[in-house]
């Protein structure tokens, strides 16, 4: 079985996430894509972020109705900050030997992956599906520090562990959670940026807890 793992802050989940995940699922023939919200993005101010249960609840509403999409709250129950490397290790431990784990990352996230905790291990733990994201339609360059460990292949790159880094071009939807938070704080519409199943609750949260959406996540 091939399984996708899609990590993120999801503050909030939006149509850019959902459509990209759907296209990767189809392109790679994944049985399931598991969305894994981060409890507290390392180095970010907890007061400026909606609590994890709130982001999880919005995610639940967003994936409802897609039988191939699921959610793991694994990072929420773990003490300390969430690190993708720990999440992948934990999820891998629960799989059958023949199962294949694909870690989905947008090209912007991939470009910064060398700043992630113990990032070289990520390349050995899962195959990477790197999704295009505006403004870039082209594959991003891999981290320079991994140059000797990655070999070009017709489909992308191969890590010396044998795992793949595959670029998956998806429909370029220039939707970001940052822009959605800004719209919420300014009382502007978020319709057609998030699923309708999420919109009402999100607008209510924006009115009642504007501070959750007014901080910067970067
Ligand atoms: P923020 O603006 O707060 O950073 P975001 O929209 O980038 O939010 P994240 O939760 O940071 O959302 O992203 C989680 C993952 O989804 C990352 O790997 C990111 O690259 C990817 N992603 C987010 N939006 C898109 C999009 N529109 N197209 C493709 N990938 C996306
Ligand atoms: Mg982001």
Explain what you see:
The chain has 218 residues and is an alpha/beta fold. Helices cover 34% and strands 19% of the residues. The chain is built from 8 helices and 8 strands, in the order βαβαβαβααββββααα. The chain has an 8-stranded mixed β-sheet with strand order 3-2-1-4-5-8-7-6. β2, α2 and β3 form a beta-alpha-beta unit. The protein is globular. The mean pLDDT is 93. The structure holds adenosine-5'-triphosphate and magnesium ion. Adenosine-5'-triphosphate binds next to α1, β4, α4 and α6.
Helix and strand topology:
Elements: E1 2-8, H1 15-28, E2 32-37, H2 52-63, E3 69-71, H3 84-93, E4 100-106, H4 107-111, H5 119-125, E5 127-131, E6 150-153, E7 156-159, E8 164-168, H6 177-185, H7 196-208, H8 211-214
Parallel strand pairs: 1-2, 1-4, 2-3, 4-5, 5-8
Antiparallel strand pairs: 6-7, 7-8
Helix pairs in contact: 2-7, 3-5
Adenosine-5'-triphosphate is lined by residues 8-11, 16-17, 20, 105-106, 108-109, 131, 133, 173, 175-178, 217.
């Amino acid at each position: 079985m091939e399984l996708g793992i899609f990590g993120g802050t999801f503050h909030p989940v939006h149509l850019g996430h959902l459509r990209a995940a759907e296209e990767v699922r189809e392109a790679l023939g994944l049985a399931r894509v598991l969305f894994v919200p981060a409890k507290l993005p390392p180095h970010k101010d907890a007061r400026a972020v909606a609590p994890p249960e709130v982001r999880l609840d919005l995610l639940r509403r967003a994936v409802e109705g897609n039988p191939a999409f699921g959610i793991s709250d694994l990072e929420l129950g773990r003490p300390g900050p969430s690190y993708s490397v720990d999440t992948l290790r934990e999820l891998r431990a629960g799989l059958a030997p023949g199962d294949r784990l694909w870690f989905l990352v947008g090209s912007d996230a991939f470009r910064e992956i060398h700043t992630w905790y113990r990032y070289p291990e990520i390349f050995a733990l899962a195959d990477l599906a790197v999704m295009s994201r505006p403004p870039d339609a082209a594959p991003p360059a891999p981290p320079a520090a991994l140059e000797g460990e990655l070999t070009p292949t017709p489909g992308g790159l191969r890590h010396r562990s044998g795992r793949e880094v595959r670029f998956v071009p998806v429909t370029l939807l220039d939707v970001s959670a940052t822009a959605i938070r800004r719209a919420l704080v300014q009382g502007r519409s978020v319709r057609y940026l998030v699923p309708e199943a999420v919109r009402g609750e999100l607008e209510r949260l924006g009115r009642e807890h504007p501070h959750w959406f007014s901080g910067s996540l970067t």
